[in-house]
Design brief:
Structural class: alpha+beta
Number of helices: 1
Strand order of the largest sheet: 3-2-1-4-5
Strand content: 35-45%
Distance between the termini: 35 Å
Oligomer: single chain
Helix content: 10-25%
């Protein structure tokens, strides 16, 4: 059996308090928990799994990952935002 974990890249828009932020991925905006990362800031790209930001990405990794997600959305027939 293969077990996979899917983490989706989000961009933090607003820090709500010490442990919560709003973030977007494509056309989706949601509230996320930031307990597991250091010093979250608006504009940071983070990987989100089960509502928790689990890793902050470098600008280079962020650009590459968003390009891959745009391709996934395109292949799924969604309009890329």
């Amino acid at each position: 059996m293969i077990v996979l974990c899917l983490a989706v890249p989000y961009i933090i828009e607003l820090i709500m308090d010490d442990n919560r932020a709003t973030a977007t991925s494509g056309a989706v905006r949601t509230e996320i928990r930031t307990d597991l990362i250091d010093s979250p800031s608006p504009g940071d790209t983070v990987l989100v799994h089960a509502g928790f930001a689990i890793e902050k990405l470098s600008p280079e990794d962020s650009e590459e990952l968003f390009a891959l997600w745009d391709e996934v959305r395109r292949l799924a027939g969604e309009n890329v935002v």
